[in-house]
Amino acid sequence: MEKVQTGQVIEFYSNRCLVKTDFGEFACIAIKNVVVGDYVELEIIQDSKKLLGKILKINKRASMLSRWDGNKEKLFAANITHVGLLVAPKPKTTNEFIDKWILNARLSKIEPFILNNKIDFNSNNEYRKKLDIYKNIDIKIINCSAKYGNNLEELVDYIKGKCVVFVGNSGAGKSTLTSKIIGKELRTNELSNDQGVHTTSISSLYELSNNIKIIDSPGMRDIELIKYSKDKIIKGFSEILKSSKDCKFNNCNHINNDGCNVIKDLLDGVIDKSRYNNFIKFRDS
C-alpha cells in the first residue's frame, strides 16, 4: 500500500473526518475547509495499533455547495452533481424556497430537480399550478411518496451515476426519503478522538449500487443566499435571462425601463409572476 493515497471524505465531524480510499477507510484530522464529498490526498500514518490518515491537500472541486452563515460564506458539501428539492402539499413549500435553491444550485454548477413528495396527499389546484411553473421552465419533476415508497424506482433510475443531496423544509420528508433510498435508518455516526470522547457526525456520504452517491447533511433546509452579484442572480432564472436578451437597452433594470422585454413577457404570461418577484427580491435585497 502506497503511503500517500487519494480518497473521498465520506463522514465529516466537528474536528475529524473519515476518508474512503481503495485500501479502506481512514480517520483523519479535518484540515481547514475540508467538507464531505471532497477528494483529498492523505498520508497513511501509524498511530499505536491502528492506521490513521493525515490529509495533505484538497483536490480541485467540480462543484461546491455553500450557504451564508452570519457574515461569511460556509461551504458544507463538494463534488455534488444534483440537488433534489423536496416539495410537498403539506407542510407548504413556498416558491421562494424553491427559487432560492434553484438559484443556489445553478450558480454552484449543480443541476436542480424537484421531488413532488407525499403524492398520497390530496393536492389542490394552487399546488398543481405551482409545480407547473417549474415544469414550464424545464425543471425535472419526479412524483413520489417517501413514506409509502411509491415511484422511488424512477428516482433511483434518475440518480444513477450522480452525487445527490436532498433539501427540504422540516416535515417535507427528507430523512424518510434518504432512509428509503439507502436502505437503512439514518443515525448519528460517531468517531473517537484521541481522548476517547465521541464527536457528533455533521455530514455523511452514502455510496450505493449503480455509482449513486447521496450526501446527507444538516442545513439542507431554508438557507440565506450567498451574497451574489446582481449580474449573477439573473443566471438562476433562465427564462428571465433569455427574455432579457431582447430588452432595448443592455443596462435595463427589468422594472420600469422603456423597451423592457422582461416586463412584456411578464404581462403576456410568458414569465411567471412569482418567479419574477423572487428574481427582483434576490437581486435587489
Task: Give an overview in words.
This protein is of the alpha/beta class and 285 residues long. The protein folds into three domains: 55 residues, Nucleic acid-binding proteins (OB fold (Dihydrolipoamide Acetyltransferase, E2P)), CATH 2.40.50; 141 residues, P-loop containing nucleotide triphosphate hydrolases (Rossmann fold, 3-Layer(aba) Sandwich); 55 residues, Orthogonal Bundle (Ribonucleotide Reductase Protein R1, domain 1). Helix content is 25%, strand content 32%. It has eight helices and 14 strands. The strands form two sheets. Strands 1, 2, 3, 4, 5, 8, 9, 10, 11, 12, 13 and 14 form a twelve-stranded mixed sheet that branches. A two-stranded antiparallel sheet has the order 6-7. About 5% of the residues have low confidence.
